[in-house]
Specification:
The complex is a heterodimer of chains A (307) and B (173). Chain A has 307 residues and is α/β, with parallel strands linked by helices. Helices cover 37% and strands 14% of the residues of chain A. Chain A has ten helices and nine strands. In chain A, the strands form two sheets. In chain A, strands 7-6-5-8-9 form a five-stranded parallel sheet. A four-stranded parallel sheet of chain A has the order 2-1-3-4, with helices on both faces. Chain A is globular. Chain B has 173 residues and is α/β, with parallel strands linked by helices. Chain B contains four helices and eight strands; from the N terminus they run βαβαββαβββαβ. Chain B has a five-stranded parallel sheet, with helices on both faces. A three-stranded antiparallel sheet of chain B has the order 1-8-7. In chain B, helix 3 links the parallel strand 4 and strand 5. Chain B is globular. Chain B starts with a strand and ends with a strand. The chains are: A alpha/beta (307), B alpha/beta (173). Chains A and B meet through helix 1 of A and helix 3 of B.
């Protein structure tokens, strides 16, 4: 029996994750055809409900839904009646009346997509909520890593940056862990929580652990009330991939990942983007394939339509 | 339950298919595209026969799960497999291959899928078994064996590679 919603990685078991990753492969194959679209979700409506600005995730979901032939409506929250004081609950009732089959939600509050999922028959997909989860990002990260390492168990990945406030760190570390990858966190001491994963506060120490991939988190300038580092240059020299560090990474054949959008000269220097083991553009392409697999794999609650 | 075709009869049916395709091709290149799952194995075996006879042939597989017209009635969506058509479909002469033709809906879906790869010059249809009861106007040009069945009967095709044996059974409901 298929799931109605896709809200986090924690509640998925290993077999479900592997199934989703396997299902994304045929979707990626479609991108090389002359027609990239399939009729699987013809006549279905996908509603994008983004309470937080996003260009990449929003357009990735939009492309994914359109390649499945779904109709896509973007509910432009910053310009909507929400700013006139409408509650999320009333908004959902309105949207329910529009009979959307899938609702893709991004919200600055953790748990809001789950709350919406309980209130609607539509399938709800979490596109990022607060510091809680970003499960489709995790899926595309795992898919991308699996393309270069078909045997994931035993591989090592270090996730670097502000771990504490990052939903990407949370979801991606969870999925990699479930797939048998050894995960380590690295960042400023106050921003790397104590977890069962290995913990580093020093870049060089993290690298001497011998990772197969370095996952640089984005420095979220907009989310930092009090920045955790004095300047971009400072961050770059302490935790960023500098030209010198790229040499070491390249010599060891380590892969570089980043959820985007990148801050050039902060998390990584320009030259990383030309490095042949930089996986950032694959991550973007794989985001569409994995999101197609998620949309196709869910089943809206059909028997319980609103009257 | 009754055995409609034993291994020897299936072998003969595949030989007949290959023979019909070969004589119709009249020396032209043949592009077989098998429909997953089981149409691909039939196609593979026909392909082997064609190559044996010195014909110029290519082989592809098509998964039509994304083109089905019955998602609404399924409790979960079908598991996808990769399609692999490594030759350009544009301008080619494609022979679609399936194990059984029944309502014809699978072939409708397969044609939709195939045309998203390109615009073939010509498409023919080859099936191992035609069991009748069409619901849409689709007819195979090449048929290994015709079976008389009741609308409610189930026809189960087993193939060596995927099922471990060769057999066609009719199961009466």
């Amino acid at each position: 029996m298929a799931r109605k919603d896709f809200l986090d990685i924690v509640s998925l078991d290993r077999a479900e994750i592997i199934h989703l990753l396997d299902q994304a492969v045929p979707f990626k194959d479609l991108f090389t055809r002359s027609v990239k679209k399939v009729p699987a979700l013809k006549g279905k409506t996908v509603l994008m409900l983004f309470y937080e600005p996003s260009t990449r995730t929003l357009s990735s979901f939009e492309v994914a839904a359109k390649r499945l032939s779904a109709d896509v409506t973007i509910f432009d929250v910053p310009h909507s009646s929400v700013t006139k004081g409408e509650s999320v609950r009333d908004t959902i009732d309105t949207l329910q009346a529009m009979r959307a089959d899938y609702i893709v939600v991004r919200h600055h509050l953790s748990g809001q997509p789950a709350a919406i999922a309980r209130q609607t028959n539509a399938s709800v997909i979490n596109a990022g909520d607060g510091a809680h989860a970003h499960p489709t990002q995790a899926l595309l990260d795992a898919f991308t890593l699996r393309e270069v390492y078909p045997e994931l168990p035993g591989r090592k990945v270090v996730i670097m940056g502000d771990i504490l406030h990052s939903r990407v760190a949370r979801s991606t570390s969870t999925i990699l862990d479930k797939l048998g990858v050894e995960v380590a966190f690295c960042g400023p001491g106050s921003l790397v929580p104590q977890t069962r994963f290995k913990r580093f506060t020093n870049y060089e120490e993290a690298m001497s652990w011998g990772p197969d991939a370095v996952y640089q988190l984005r420095v979220q300038k907009e989310r930092q009330d009090a920045p955790f580092y004095p300047s971009d240059r400072e961050y770059h020299s302490v935790y960023g991939i500098t030209e010198d560090r790229l040499k070491e990474i390249s010599d060891k054949g380590i892969y570089v990942m980043h959820p985007g959008p990148i801050n050039r000269g902060v998390e990584l220097c320009d030259a990383v983007l030309d490095y042949d083991r930089c996986l950032i553009s694959q991550q973007v392409e794989n985001g569409i394939a994995t999101r197609m697999a998620v949309l196709f794999g869910l089943k809206p609650d059909l028997k319980n339509e609103p009257s | 339950m009754s055995i409609a075709l034993d291994p020897a009869a299936m072998s003969a049916a595949i030989d007949r298919l290959a023979g019909q395709i070969l004589s119709a091709a009249d020396g032209q290149a043949i592009d077989l595209v098998g429909i997953r799952s089981r149409g691909d194995e039939v196609a593979e075996r026909v392909f082997a026969k064609l190559v044996e006879s010195g014909a110029q042939a290519r082989l592809g597989v098509l998964d039509i799960s994304l083109y089905r017209d019955d998602y609404e009635h399924l409790s979960s969506n079908p598991t996808l497999q990769s399609s692999a058509i490594d030759f350009p479909v544009d301008g080619s002469h494609v022979v679609l291959v399936d194990d059984v033709i029944f309502t014809g809906r699978t072939i409708r879906a397969a044609l939709d899928a195939l045309f998203d790869y390109g615009r073939p010059a010509k498409v023919d249809l080859a099936v191992l078994i035609d069991r009748g009861h069409r619901e849409i106007p689709v007819e195979p040009r090449f048929v290994g064996e015709h079976l008389k069945t009741d609308r409610m009967d189930r026809v189960d095709v087993s193939l060596e590679k995927i099922d471990g044996k060769d057999a066609v059974e009719i199961i009466t409901q």
